[in-house]
Write a structure and sequence with these properties.
With 161 residues, the chain is mainly α. The protein is built from 7 helices and no strands.
């Protein structure tokens, strides 16, 4: 697969990308556990078929200490025993918030209740924004065909400066 366009190489794309990154940084620095953030971003990226995002989030999660077993089972989290009840609630929210056009009517009341049971207001805020932002990032990657496979953990650390 050949990429169609490099958004970061375009002046406007770089300007917007920096703001997009800053929103993502605020979420990353929130009280929402990093492991939950990684699992949610990986699952949404799998659903949306963004190769670059799956590559990025699986490698970053592994570099942060996430186990290969859990990373490999994210796609089948409902049929796995390696995720906590709180992580399952977040993964359900990620799936329902991602599959809006797949005959879903949005996030179910049961999923929302599970999320509220396990996360405080700040964590819920971060989780909702995280689902929205990863879906936006997935769409950017898929539209311009950013390929997966070459990401190295920490590659974008210089964006913070």
């Amino acid at each position: 697969m050949e990429p169609r366009f490099n958004l970061a190489a375009n002046e406007l794309g770089a300007k917007i990308g920096k703001r997009f990154y800053n929103v993502s940084l605020a979420i990353e620095q929130s009280a929402l556990p990093k492991a939950v953030q990684d699992l949610v971003m990986l699952r949404a990226s799998q659903i949306n078929g963004c190769g670059f995002c799956v590559d990025f989030h699986s490698k970053e999660a592994a570099a942060a200490g996430e186990t290969a077993v859990r990373l490999n089972l994210v796609a089948a989290w409902r049929e796995s025993s390696v995720f906590t009840v709180a992580e399952r609630a977040a993964l359900a929210l990620a799936e329902e918030g991602t599959r809006l056009a797949d005959a879903y009517t949005g996030v179910s009341d049961a999923t929302w209740a599970a999320v509220r049971e396990h996360y405080d207001d700040d964590q819920v805020t971060a989780l909702v924004y995280l689902v929205a932002m990863i879906n936006a990032a997935n769409r950017l990657g898929v539209i311009v065909r950013t390929p997966g496979g070459s990401y190295e953990p920490g590659m974008f650390a210089t964006l913070a400066s």
